[in-house]
Amino acid sequence: MRRYLNRIRKKISGKQGFSFSEMLIATLIILLVTGILTATVALASDHFQKSMRSSESKVLASTLKTIFISELAYTTEVRTDGSGNVTEFQSQNYSIEGAISSVGVSDPDAGGYGKIIFYNANDTEESLKVLGDGSYPNGIGAKVTSLTYDKEAEDFKLVLQVGYGETCCVERTVLIHNENGDILTD
User: How many alpha carbons lie under 13 Å from residue 22 in its C-beta half-sphere?
Assistant: First the structure.
């Protein structure tokens, strides 16, 4: 070991310098270390991005769940198809000029995730965003995969997904009891 250190000292103090093969090996070692560091940083960045999307998806799902609970628990009118799927309902906070509303998604991505909207069932051009654009960060979106109404129990069943692309980060199933009791149905 001493002999190796002495040789390095002589080369540094002398005018001779390092040989081509020594410089080539040192360069290869530096490139190898740089490549490993780059791959590690890329993996860490990807993990951080997934973690942020997961966390933000949970917050968005919770917020949308709260909105739907407040809307459906006090709605006064519901229209369903033959199998109990809700097609329209009277929104308490998001109705457009008192018209009956439907739930939709604006600007859906490949997986159908987008921004939840309530739109006028009589005029699909009129719609209101349930939440602002800032509630959908990092490309995440939401969709209602199922909304049903049980007339006998006076309960809604909502299945809500939050994700991006083809990836579902959060799925929430919520039973919402209608508090009005005298709900109009078709």
Answer: 7
